[in-house]
Design brief:
The complex is a heterodimer of chains A (256) and B (327). Chain A is α/β, with parallel strands linked by helices and 256 residues long. Helix content of chain A is 27%, strand content 29%. Chain A has a 9-stranded mixed beta sheet with strand order 9-8-7-10-6-1-4-5-11, sandwiched between helices. A two-stranded antiparallel ribbon of chain A has the order 2-3. In chain A, helix 2 packs across helix 5 and helix 3 crosses helix 4. Chain B starts with a strand and ends with a helix. Chain B has 2 domains: 171 residues, 3-Layer(aba) Sandwich (Rossmann fold); 126 residues, TPP-binding domain (Rossmann fold, 3-Layer(aba) Sandwich), CATH 3.40.50. Classes of the chains: A alpha/beta (256), B alpha/beta (327).
Chain lengths: 256, 327
């Protein structure tokens, strides 16, 4: 089975202090760590597990800047067979739609039975690239998948709905599945594998290799800090002081 | 002016709450643009739903067929693409839900109309559509301008607008269904209910909930000790379940449990939107987090900006002390 995995290198912002830069359209990145988007790493692991079960190849594709090659090498070290970087520096105003169009124009020329992507990138929060890509390639898709079984050229997919309810679908291959976090336990790449992957070739594809004009559907005009809601009363003082205040509040409310 | 379409979301025979949020938004936009808001209802039995929708839209566009009993993005796309071609709406609004996320992107791509997701606000000025949406793990908002077009499609985040009941009397427009069976290449099989776990956190008065901030499974006993002392059960965020530190039945959030305890203590939880959806209606919310800008502090009543591991042991002892004085 030939599997394509689309990944994205993103700033790790979940636990970081995120600040807007002077352009007002991007964030200050110099103090942030970058890594493979979380759900993409689950998609990659799922691809490697399927390859281990059925044989075949895993091709990892990413639209990204040169540093993305580091992320692609980690993917190769984990078990990817080949990697393609599409030069993000060749394009401007990359939105979810444009990303999908660019990916589709590269993937269309590759053999595949299954395409896996993460269900959402934590930087732009779109949750749309995989589904759009499937439509452009004219293959069925299923999103937010937390369980995937392949038998007889069909995928049994289980989508996670609100409240933890699962939606079981049967989808014919070739298909695209967007993977939700928690579907598996992503492996770590061994040091030896990382060293080996360092010398592997990464194919670079640029705008000139994509023979069509691609327009964006959306323009980011401005980033801003979310309006402060009701905002908690922040208790201040030494640990002992704040804890005493808190315990008193809990007691006064009759909760203990 | 071309109208506004909003998609009715139903599952297992019940209209989902997001539908009434979408209709509230749809009516507001329609009013501003002096046009009509239509609810699009794809289902197997329209009668039982129409009563709930009647006041809330100018029109209800119905396709009634057993193929729509359970959601399948593919059957919905086939139906909606027909409806969009016929109606030429200015804007189609779908929930940013498991259903809307599966359907919206491919529908917009097929119809070749500008699309964006997870909108918290939709602004229309001079025929141009701007939306406000969340980025970077919910830490920032972005204002996005969609490409100029006569028709747009967006998915809208639940909880972004207070529901208002309309005072309209919708005209019901029944349309022929373009399909009678699910396509061979993508079939809905069944729903599978979440496994019932050992604990039901939705029944607890006090929930002590942990996020990524607990760093490691090995740190859980400290939290469990504290929960025992305060008389609470353990809740958690999605990453904690993904990491295998706690079973799924402890997960609070849109894809986990929705809880409303008397006291919710969020430890090392930054406050992703999906988590907030599951706990923001708790009576009292206390948050402990090192990051003063963590979104959780916007939902909490009381906050402590500090390492949870410094706070929890001291708080445990303090609670013990107070309990003993009480006795």
């Amino acid at each position: 089975m030939n599997i394509i995995v689309c990944i994205k290198r993103v700033p790790q912002t979940a636990e970081a202090d995120v600040k807007i830069d002077s352009t007002g359209k991007d964030i200050i990145k110099d103090r942030l760590a970058f890594d493979m988007n979380e759900s993409d790493s689950y998609a990659l692991e799922e691809a490697i597990l399927l390859k281990e079960k059925f044989g075949g190849t895993v091709t990892v594709v990413s639209l990204g800047y040169p540093e993305t090659e580091d992320t692609l090498r980690i993917a190769l070290a984990k078990g990817g067979d080949s990697a393609i970087r599409i030069k993000a520096e060749d394009f401007d105003e990359i939105d979810g739609y444009k990303t999908a169009v660019i990916l589709s124009s590269v993937i269309r020329g590759l053999p595949y039975d299954l395409i896996l992507t993460g269900c959402m990138a934590t930087d732009d929060y779109y949750s749309m690239v995989g589904q759009t890509l499937a439509e452009l390639l004219d293959i069925p898709h299923a999103s937010l998948v937390t369980k995937l079984d392949i038998t007889n050229n069909k995928a049994q997919v289980y989508r996670e709905l609100e409240g933890g309810l699962l939606e079981h679908l049967e989808v014919n291959l070739p298909a695209l599945v967007t993977v939700q976090t928690g579907i598996n336990t992503p492996r770590f790449a061994s040091l030896i594998a990382i060293r080996r992957a360092a010398s592997k070739e990464i194919k670079i594809v640029g705008k000139s290799d994509i023979s069509k004009d691609i327009i964006s559907n959306a323009t980011l005009e401005e980033l801003f800090y979310p309006p402060v809601g009701k905002r908690a009363e922040i208790l201040t003082g030494s640990i002992d002081e704040v804890v005493t205040k808190l315990a008193t509040i809990i007691k006064e409310k009759g909760l203990i | 002016m071309a109208g506004i379409l909003t998609l009715v979301e139903h599952r297992q025979g019940v209209i989902r709450d997001i539908t009434f949020e979408l209709l509230t938004l749809g009516r507001k936009i329609a009013q501003n643009l002096s046009t009509q808001c239509s609810a699009v209802l794809l289902c197997d039995n329209a009668e039982k739903f129409i009563g709930q929708l009647k006041n809330n839209a100018h029109r209800i566009i119905v396709m009634e067929n057993s193929v729509f009993k359970d959601f399948n993005a593919e059957t919905y796309q086939i139906a909606l693409s027909e409806i969009l071609k016929k109606e030429n709406p200015f804007l189609t609004i779908i929930g940013h839900t498991a259903m809307g996320m599966d359907l919206g992107p491919s529908l917009a791509t097929q119809m070749n109309i500008p699309f964006t997701t997870d909108c918290m606000d939709v602004q229309i000025f001079d025929g141009k559509l701007r939306v406000i949406r969340s980025m970077f793990d919910g830490k920032l908002n972005a204002r996005i301008l969609l490409k100029d077009n006569p028709s747009y499609l967006v998915t809208y985040r639940s909880g972004s607008i207070p529901v208002e009941t309309g005072n309209l009397d919708a005209e019901v427009v029944k349309l022929e269904t373009p399909i009678n069976a699910q396509p061979e290449y993508r079939k809905f099989i069944e729903y599978i209910e979440a496994a019932v776990g050992a604990v039901d956190i939705t029944k607890a008065d006090i929930i002590v909930s942990v996020g990524r901030g607990i760093k490691d499974k090995a740190n859980l006993p400290v939290i469990e000790d504290f929960a025992k002392v305060i008389g609470g059960v353990i809740g958690c965020t999605r990453p904690v379940v993904d990491a295998g530190w706690l079973p799924k039945e402890h997960q609070v959030g849109s894809s986990g449990k929705t809880v409303k305890p008397k006291l919710y203590i969020a430890l090392g939880i930054s406050g992703a939107f999906q988590h907030l959806m599951g706990m923001k209606n708790s009576d009292t919310i206390i948050a402990v987090n090192k990051d003063p800008n963590a979104p959780i502090f916007n939902e909490a009543d009381y906050g402590i900006v500090e390492d949870l591991f410094k706070v929890v042991p001291v708080l445990k002892n303090k609670i013990l002390e107070l309990k003993q004085t009480k006795a």
